[in-house]
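2024-03-11 09:14:02 INFO receiving multi-entity request
2024-03-11 09:14:02 INFO entity count = two
2024-03-11 09:14:03 INFO echoing inputs for audit
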Amino acid sequence: MTDAPGRVRRRRGEERGGSGWRADYRHVSNPFGPLTVLSEDEVEHIHGLALRLLSEEGLRVLLPEAREILAGKGMGSDEDSMVRFDPEVVEWAVAQAPATVDLVARNPDRNVHLGGRSVAFVPVSGPPHVSDLERGRRPGTLADFVDSVRLTQTFDILHMMGSPVEPIDVPTENRHLEMTLPILVDSDKLPFVYARGHRQVMDCFAMIRIAHGIGEDAFRANVHAWTVINSNSPRQIDIPMCQGIIDFARWGQLLVITPFTLAGAMAPVTVKGALVLQHAEALAGITLAQVVKPGAPVVYGAFTSNVDMRSGAPAFGTPEYVKASLAAGQLARRLGIPWRSSGPTASNAPDVQGAYETMMSLFGALMGGANMVLHAAGWLEGGLTASYEKLVLDVEVLQMLAESFKPLPLEEAEYAWEALTEVAPGGHFFGAAHTMERYNGAFYPPLVSDWSNFGQWTEAGSMDATHRATRIWQENLANFEPPPLADDRREELVDFKARRVAEGGAPPVS
Amino acid sequence: MTDAPGRVRRRRGEERGGSGWRADYRHVSNPFGPLTVLSEDEVEHIHGLALRLLSEEGLRVLLPEAREILAGKGMGSDEDSMVRFDPEVVEWAVAQAPATVDLVARNPDRNVHLGGRSVAFVPVSGPPHVSDLERGRRPGTLADFVDSVRLTQTFDILHMMGSPVEPIDVPTENRHLEMTLPILVDSDKLPFVYARGHRQVMDCFAMIRIAHGIGEDAFRANVHAWTVINSNSPRQIDIPMCQGIIDFARWGQLLVITPFTLAGAMAPVTVKGALVLQHAEALAGITLAQVVKPGAPVVYGAFTSNVDMRSGAPAFGTPEYVKASLAAGQLARRLGIPWRSSGPTASNAPDVQGAYETMMSLFGALMGGANMVLHAAGWLEGGLTASYEKLVLDVEVLQMLAESFKPLPLEEAEYAWEALTEVAPGGHFFGAAHTMERYNGAFYPPLVSDWSNFGQWTEAGSMDATHRATRIWQENLANFEPPPLADDRREELVDFKARRVAEGGAPPVS
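2024-03-11 09:21:47 INFO inference complete, emitting structure
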């Protein structure tokens, strides 16, 4: 395994003689909280209002097949495709959804457990633009997509693969093929698949089966892929999203059902009002999935934030966002399923605003007990741009948080009684036996942070953290080595992609 | 009152038509946590080891008067000034210390309650250097000191005055006089007084009495000033610090007793070992204060961090720092007294490292339930530099945290049922009656954050958050108006300072 911690150790090792730190970020558990902002009565009230909204007012379901499936449970629709959801069926559906989900990557050490105290971090997914300090901001390309997949692969703290940037230079009918190939060849983390129509999803599932060397039954038996389902708030699920719910549920793959409820725009201007809508839409998606296949793996996605009421611009990492996240955790636990939060910012640059907004978002996510944090690294501009530097800077923060989650060691020697009595008043502990035995690897060695003094830092060029991050992503990409993959599987993947491209690919459904 | 929120409202109002936001940051209460990293047994074990360290090994007390005071309680010292502390006396002393402390500012609306769920933020205190983007990094001057006091005054979220930068251009014997004058004239927040010798402290107390228009008895009857006592870790309290404990305790003023226990340098290389030392030194200071005057107001100060073991450089906001902070809160609650934490960073610039290290520090402080957070805004370089931009950037974070602490409103209308049923699927809430009634003042309006889109932001000059902060401190200083102070008191303060300078001031004691 030659992942981030190893890479960091080597880099530091070359520079400074080795930290001795034993990093292990593949499985993170959060011992803290969860913190709460709602009383139990308020949680029940939101749940009740969401059920009432779905049953009395309904939710528009744009795919005929989805309406037929729901009608099979007695939930009819009107000529406007508006489905009235039966609260009893919704409650039944919630009860079918598993409390924890185990994700199976092609490298077993990359398997992810979602639920309980576990936390999985996923980098930014989906931006049309990409940026770095050397090349500026530009539309995403396949080359950037490949580099971003590789960069993600080098950091163990990023537990699952997203779709790091949209490769605008690839025709839309081939894009899913061109994206899935590097995800499977250059990474052994759990692959993301866009729900952009049945044929695209089937292509991607086929490629994942090739990478695993398994057939359809084995594929269905475990979760090998994941997607995000966004409702069209308010109260609507469009055709590709409905199709995605149906396909992923049928094939037993993970659905992260995430209403994007911006308070003041697509959702009410109050946090609680936005939460009612978020909860209703999530329940609708969960219900469709469970009706398709009881027990289908789903995650409760939460993405309630607010807009700037003067301009309508979306904002993230705000105080309202933090409270909505803590509340979302309570609502997900009410349902008894894992929940997903995010680490977004509205900043246009990988600057201090980007840092504090993302950290506020992470605070809401992690103190709310999120099991999955999407867009946890590299997101800028409300999701319009993926930043290489921001990804590296956020990885440092995620690593520090993961270290903060680790318990203090229990050994009596940790209290350092011998050293405390050995060192005289006004002395120092540098030479104490207790220190000498432990100094190598005693503390977390940073990835980006520079702790040199002002004089040393100035002599070295006064480089700020963002510019230091440039060197790190460049170095990680220069040193990239793909994870092991049997030659025949790689060849089969390349052949599959070439054949499907030759056949015309599969245009996205909208 | 023309403080920060008002100023922000005006500024935003001029630019964008008013946010309508009602900000109130003068009294902040933290509803969350506290989070813990130690079991109750571990807390007791650290407490027990600290008592044992103080009694068996002792702590060096360098001021003869302090040793005599402690000897009066049967705690003698050897020829090396080493005092063995009697655990029973220490426990008695802890029981004398008040569980909460009320601080009386010359403006009653600036009074601060320390204890329970309350949090007071204090900006960076004590750096020898100052920096801003326009003038660079330089030794502090009196002009910078005055500007920093004024800037601190303009933000309500900064609850107490520190000593924002050392005015190196003022002779040391007059420095306390020249510093205390602007603190009392340009600010109505609780003043900080350095413990740099008895005569300096008496001068400053006299000036504070003038500002309040009170005599000695009234001064003693309430807490009107505060100081920080740093032990010389390991296990030593020097002459000015001992004198400060005695003077502040006798006069009933606040002592924030803070060992600076850097794990791996002045403290053991393990977090738990450093905590034993921190706790022992804090207990020694608390004991001296309570023996001087039972019931003297004290705060348990915690400043355990770690060094970079490759260079010895101090580090802050590290995972080790976070865990030490959470543990410190547990130890302070074990004693039943308020506790102080900090918001430091080792970064050399107001950059992303500065942002994330300070936010990690704040995370440890606030999730640990700290009642007072010193160096919460403006600190750089491990405390060697005060940054104007960092202060503004940190104020934004502190305001966002304070907003996150506010409970969600309880009214049924918050759930927005009418709006949820009024807006059709796929529509938006901009024009809903529920939105129109609330959009003005619905969400926190940021101080520094820019939520415009990339095109607008680029046209406006692509200014990052740190450069935007420059404009804010410049504007706040340009618009500064001192808080009300009776002319006769101002004149008396100016006269007092002039007279004491003419008399030769009072050199610091070391």
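2024-03-11 09:21:48 INFO post-check: Residues 317 and 360 of chain A are 5 Å apart (CA to CA).
2024-03-11 09:21:48 INFO post-check: Residues 271-292 of chain A form the longest helix (22 residues).
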